[in-house]
Amino acid sequence: QFPLGRRLPCDIYWHGVSFHDNNIFSGQVNKFPGMTETVRKITLSRAMRTMQDLFPVEYNFYPRSWILPEELSLFVEEVRTMKDSNPSWKPTFIVKPDGGCQGDGIYLIKDPGDIRLTGSIQSRPAVVQEYICKPLLMDKLKFDIRLYVLLKSLEPLEIYIAKDGLSRFCTEPYQEPTLKNLHQVFMHLTNYSLNIHSGNFIHSDSVNTGSKRTFSSILCRLSSRGADVKKLWSDIISLVIKTIIALTPELKVYYQSDIPAGKPGPTCFQILGFDILLTKNLKPMLLEVNANPSMRIEHEQELSPGVFENVPSPVDEEVKVAVIRDTLRLVDPQKKKRKDTHLSFHTYLLIFPTQLQSLHAGIAGMKDKQHKHHSLKLSLKLKFYLKLGSCQSLEQAREASGELPAAPKSPEAALPSLCLKQVFPKYASEFSYLRLVDRVAALFIRFLGVKGTTKLGPTGFRTFIRNCRLSNSNFSMAAVDILYIDITRRWNSMSIEKESGMCLQAFVEAFFCLARKKYKSLPLHEQVSALVEVCECRLAALHRKRLVWGCG
Ligand code: ADP
């Protein structure tokens, strides 16, 4: 808890919702600026579309999506064309309101004409997406996977994936969508928040039965059926890395605007929740990314009609405690300090104490003795590490550790091995060619000019064109201005933001347009790559020249 009037800064700030909570000038914050906006359904779909335009095969793990209302006619048109070319295609679509969660406002349709244009959808933009009709079933039920991913750093990119996750089950046996069953949410939507209200929901004390299980228990069952579980994991790892690569350009724009380079500021990390669906053929498909995944380790139980109590959920506890524990271990400032000096214990944690409180409440209500004992030990450990974290000297830390019957030699020694596995930069060489929009974003950020902004003004855009020497007799500066105005106006008409100017996506569109013009016959990613190289080279040359002039 951050006591009122505290003057000393913290090493780690653990915020409940967003980056913006206080003026923070140092340490590490568990949220990135702009993450919530970046993973919203529409923004995510746009970022994925850009990547699908560049690398269609690599990004085929995200269902084809259209943004409503602005792409309604495009959606109708494309579906009609696809149906004409393949009359046996009988698609289903899922409509999801932007910014919605927990299945709120979601519905399925068979025909584009069934989109509800009155009421909510008009006032609330949405994504309409191809529905995955043949999901992998277990016990005849549809389920999805929630995986926890730690984005430890944006620059350089560092990604960790939790070795275990959750599988959330539907509560009605699955049938492929028909007009008759489209509205049956317990059959089609895997959201815990919906299925909990079904009479068929099973709370289980075991991690491999019931309506919420560990993902590892699913893998075990798949493996016993002879499935290639190793390949599945490697596909999931690539899905996660590719998705984060799609999100980083936008995140970097927010980052430089909130924490300008060269000024004092904190660094950031964030735990993300990835929702993944497995198809019948074991292909992982991304459904969405959550910026604030629930870290609750208990659930509500109705003791008698209308009387509820929070009880511990062993499945949630198994997965989530490990994720939080390992995140704290990985961002532990002591690690860095231990490397250069001998232990100077100086960790302050600003952590919302709900985790500990809810654990205590849960333990008090436990009936199973063994489970109670296990959880008490866990609570003691958590308390111990929070306490260790607040010690200001090694002596104090030693004193604190004396509270435990068998005091560990170092905090790390008492902990199980890491459940978070590093996947980036470990596999960076396989994926770095996909980081093309990142390089376009770096050009964009370079010309933003005034710090604290996320949009490029007309002068900034002109300077970019001039410095990269992209205008010529076929592409005059007047044409540059027209390109800027056309694209910027269209993007701003779709946004509710007040700040005027060219946003990153608009710049990316303009950049692709320039690349197509310059390198006509190549595939898009080669056109963009060639133009990025030209721009980077010319800017580097200009920089060298300026250095020489400066010296002169
Ligand atoms: P929310 O944020 O409201 O939970 P999701 O995108 O996660 O929205 O969708 C809710 C549920 O709908 C998912 O958990 C999944 O069961 C189902 N779902 C979503 N998109 C698809 C899809 N394209 N194909 C099949 N099922 C889907």
Automatic annotation (TrEMBL):
<dbReference type="GO" id="GO:0015631">
    <property type="term" value="F:tubulin binding"/>
</dbReference>
<dbReference type="GO" id="GO:0000226">
    <property type="term" value="P:microtubule cytoskeleton organization"/>
</dbReference>
<keyword id="KW-0436">Ligase</keyword>
<dbReference type="GO" id="GO:0005524">
    <property type="term" value="F:ATP binding"/>
</dbReference>
<keyword id="KW-0067">ATP-binding</keyword>
<protein>
    <submittedName>
        <fullName>TTL11 polyglutamylase</fullName>
    </submittedName>
</protein>
<dbReference type="GO" id="GO:0070740">
    <property type="term" value="F:tubulin-glutamic acid ligase activity"/>
</dbReference>
<dbReference type="Pfam" id="PF03133">
    <property type="entry name" value="TTL"/>
</dbReference>
<keyword id="KW-0547">Nucleotide-binding</keyword>
<dbReference type="GO" id="GO:0036064">
    <property type="term" value="C:ciliary basal body"/>
</dbReference>
<dbReference type="InterPro" id="IPR004344">
    <property type="entry name" value="TTL/TTLL_fam"/>
</dbReference>
